Each structure stands twice: as C-alpha cells, then as structure tokens.
C-alpha cells in the first residue's frame, strides 16, 4: 500500500439499478478512476485527505457506443480532512456503467445439512421407589421456548449479519456484495442515520438534531 495526498471527487449517476457513485482521485503522481463500494455512502463533493492505495491497474468499459480506457485505483485507507462542493468543471454530464454490473453477484454457499440423530425407542427408567422398569419412555426435559422475531427483524438480521442489531453508530463492511452494501446504506438512510465521511461511520440523528 502507498499513501497519497490528494483530492477525491465523488459524482452520482442514476443507473438502471438506481443511483451509484464514481470517483476521480487527483494526486501528485497522477489522476485515477475510483469505483470502490465505499463511494456509495458519500454525497457528491470534493474530499481532501490521505488515501492508502492498494492497487493501480488499467481497465476499460463501453459507454455511449465507445470504449473507454482508464487507470483505476483501489483505495484501502481513507483519512479525510476536508470536504468541499463540486466545482463547475466537475459537474459535466457523465455516462458510465454501474460498477455493480462489472462483477457477477456473489452466491451464498449453502451450509451442509446435519443428518438428524436417530431417536431411541425404548429406554430404561427408574421409578421413585427404585424399581427398574424396562421398555418405558424416559421423560425428556422440556425445551426452553424461544420467541421468534418478526419477519422484518429476520430480514434485517440477514441483511446486516453481525452488525445486527444496529447501535447508535454503524460502520458498514465494504467487502460484502455491492448490492447488499447498497441495501444496507438505503436502510440506514431511511431509519434516520446520517453518514459522517470524516469518521466513515453512520450515526443515528437525535430528535433535537432532526427538529432543528
């Protein structure tokens, strides 16, 4: 990993799968395209800071009937120290494919099913008087009843995994499938969370902050 000082320009494009973000990282050694999943959390703007770049590689895509070649950077570390609005030269119309369409969705690997253990039909029990009885059924301890959650809770637990239940602060994992990452982002927005780019976490808005 190399650390570069620079400015990341984030733009939002409306695609057939919904809005998605793309970025341009300008540094002292050059300018690079950024298509990392983390970008989908950010609002449009210019973000200054230090960026730990894991990889720089050439790639291409087809848009508007033409093939575009670009040099892309994959960012592994974000240390932002300033945010600004887009400048006029950054607001030109853009036509780019959704990065989610570049990689097929990751299919979950089904967990192996454990074969049920055979039940014992007859067991030996002992009466209160100490007499042995053969062929009787041994009383089984009563299982503790677990009350299932609502269907919505079950869906959210599956969506967020180890992050569920959500706390006042949530840091999303960008290594999950990109479509799942966007679903998590959309739920946080709808639930009153706000993204803090300098801290790279989602924070629940307090009632007094909402009413101001």
Please work out how many helical segments DSSP would assign: 3
SSE series: EEEEEEEHEHEEH
Beta-strand content estimate: 35-45%
Assembly of the depicted chains = single chain
Number of β-strand runs: 10
Q: Which runs of at least 5 residues are low in confidence (pLDDT < 50)?
A: 105-113, 120-148
Please describe the biggest sheet, giving its number of strands, its sense, and whether it closes into a barrel. Answer: 5 strands, antiparallel
Give the neighbour order of strands across the main sheet: 3-2-1-4-5
Helicity range of the residues? 10-25%
N- to C-terminal distance = 43 Å
Q: Structural class given helices, strands, pairing?
A: mainly beta
Radius of gyration: 27 Å
Shape: globular
Mean pLDDT across the residues is 80
């Amino acid at each position: 990993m190399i650390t570069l000082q620079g400015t990341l320009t984030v733009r939002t494009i409306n695609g057939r799968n919904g809005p998605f973000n793309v970025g341009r990282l300008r540094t002292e050694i050059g300018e690079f395209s950024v298509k990392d999943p983390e970008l989908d959390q950010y609002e449009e703007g210019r973000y200054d800071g230090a960026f730990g770049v894991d990889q720089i590689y050439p790639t291409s895509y087809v848009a508007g009937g033409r093939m575009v070649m670009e040099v892309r950077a994959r960012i592994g570390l974000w240390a932002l120290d300033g945010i600004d609005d887009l400048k006029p030269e950054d607001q030109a119309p853009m036509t780019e494919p959704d990065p989610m369409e570049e990689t097929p969705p990751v299919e979950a690997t089904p967990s192996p099913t454990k074969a049920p253990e055979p039940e014992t039909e007859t067991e030996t029990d002992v009466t209160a008087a100490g007499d042995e009885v053969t062929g009787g059924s041994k009383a089984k301890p009563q299982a503790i009843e677990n009350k299932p959650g609502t269907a919505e809770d079950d869906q959210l637990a599956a969506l967020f995994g180890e992050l569920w239940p959500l706390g006042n602060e949530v840091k999303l994992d960008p290594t999950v499938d990109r479509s799942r990452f966007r679903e998590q982002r959309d739920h946080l927005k709808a639930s009153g969370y706000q993204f803090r780019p300098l801290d790279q976490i989602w924070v629940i808005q307090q009632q007094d902050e909402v009413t101001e």
